[in-house]
Amino acid sequence: MTDVPFVEIEDLHFTFGGREVFRGINMAIPYGRITAIMGPSGTGKTTLLKLIGGQLTPDSGRVLIDGQDVHRLSRKALFELRKRMGMLFQSGALFSDLDVFENVAFPLRVHTDLPEPMIRDLVLLKLQSVGLRGARTLTPAELSGGMARRVALARAVALDPELILYDEPFVGQDPISMGVLVELIRRLSQALELTSIVVSHDIKETLSIADYVYLISDGKVVAEGTPKSLDTHADPRVSQFVHGEPDGPVPFHYPAPDFYSDILDDATASGGHP
Amino acid sequence: MKRSKTMELGVGLFMLAGILGLVFLGLRVSGVTLSAPAESFQLEANFANVGGLRPRARVTMAGVTVGRVEAIELDTEWFDARVTLRLDGELEGQLSRDTTAAILTAGLLGEQYVGLSVGGDPEVLEAGDTITDTQSALVLEELIQQFISNMVSG
Amino acid sequence: MTKGIESLARWGRKGCDASESLGRAGIFLAQSAVAVPSREGLRLWLHQVYFVGVLSLAIVLVSGLFIGMVLALQGYTILVDFGAEQALGQMVALSLLRELAPVVAALLFAGRAGSALTAEIGLMKATEQLTSMEMIGVDPLRRIVAPRLWAGFVSLPILTVGFSVVGIWGGYLVGVEWLGVFEGSYWSNMQASVSFLDDVGNGIIKSLVFALVVTWIAVFQGYDLVPTSEGISRATTRTVVYSSLAVLGLDFVLTVVMFGGLS
Q1: In chain C, how many domains are there?
Q2: Which domains can be identified in chain A, with CATH numbers?
Q3: From the candidates B6, B8, B11, which should be mutated to test the interface with C, based on the most C CB atoms within 10 A?
Q4: Of residues A258 and B118, which shows the higher confidence score?
Q5: Considering only CA atoms, which of C140, C155, C105 is closest in space to residue C219?
């Protein structure tokens, strides 16, 4: 493992629907490591993945993958680059009109001219690695959430990508499938020397597998470091998030006028909302 | 895979049904005949007034349909209507030169059609000839006008 | 005063939004219609013809039968007053071929297949299937949208032909079998007045136009919707409303061009 950055994000600005989502983000994601991007809900973590994947275009700043500026590429070159990336979506995003086998075979069929027996071997190999070889004839509707995500993982690594993006891989999982997914992500990234980017707000699980962590809030990187160094970080906002305290510098209440005067106001103002 | 086979069969039958439907609309509903175009010939006839005659109207002889009106246009030389008739091939060289063509109406309010009746001239009409003896369509307003002026003068 | 300016500004914004979305729809059509045909594409197209066309056949044929029967019944009561009941076949056939078959089949198609297309593509968008396809390096416009667009384009004219055939047969059942119009005059009057090119042909051209517009609206609404359950239900409603209005409006324009009024 070297520390050469595989993905570089330079001074990224992005506005969506009149809201400034990112105000100058810089990141360097090293080759062959698991990098976690964390932050409270609504800080645009998924948006960041879409910017890295080239589905959204930033207002300014660059995203470099292996030295190529994602947003300067032609449509064809971008699709070529995407063959080297895998992405695991929050919902799994399996194609509902194909069964499990065909879902995993899909990238192979569209990007390679491999003969059918070879595709079969590869698909079974990938399904075996996520432990779902026996479920190959099921349709996505028949899978549980955790199983769907594992199939999606098998599909994401079908073409042996160099970079894999995980969008909230642990959200809404029971403890067992959560453990399975954590183990799978760790194993896959080690076995295939994958560069992984995990976007998540599940602190314990993410910190247990990440080599390096970026914490974003209010459109900026507020802290970065190894999981251990974040644990003892000086910034109270960081320690509030990392230790999951309900109230602190990030307030529990949405900004509002004083509670007492608000109640009195309502009583005097002949009912109804102001 | 088995499901996809029945699907493909279904689509095949669907397309076939579409083609058969089109054939039905052609043969049974529009009366397109496949053999006709080979054996037919054209005659022309000039009328002072065609009334409501339309292209594709029937041409009959003794009540039997023997052809159709092909085209109706204004003859700029005489300023009357030149009607092109397409008739069955078996009549070619059979119609006498003094054949008359009249624009008739089926029933009181029905469609208008062309009626042919043969004369006694030994010479015959060839393809492309013009029928000279014609009788125009009856126009209701003209009939009423005639009737009224007869009443007044009579 | 300010209120007037405010409402003017609101209308202006609405106009901008509408033309912007029309522009998006146009680009969308251009990008998806030029999909390169392939063996795989043919298979996908075939499957969509099944979902869009074959599964709509039952509702279209049943409606066609009833409309033909009602036409014959209503037409007979009017024509018999003029002693012109022999013209029943002509009336049934011309109203079906020129107007009712293309329009009613298109309306039924919008309700049956159009709304299903919108919901299906919308659900694919909501569950990130379209995004994930794009990340795999496959253009969803080619893979998902194009086969559906072309399937609709081919299916609706076939459904329209079916509608006409069944309708004319329904008219025959009521007119000839029940009301006793002479069978020979039912068919011969029809044959004398129906022109294959002008009536059957123009009806099919109409249904091709409707097919393109209805499927276009349906797939675009699905592709462009807000990916929530509320967004999907709204887009489905919009598909039915917009395509019905478009079909009826275009029908008037096409009728003027084809069957005169201005000739």
Answers
A1: 1
A2: 5-235 (3.40.50.300)
A3: B11
A4: B118
A5: C140
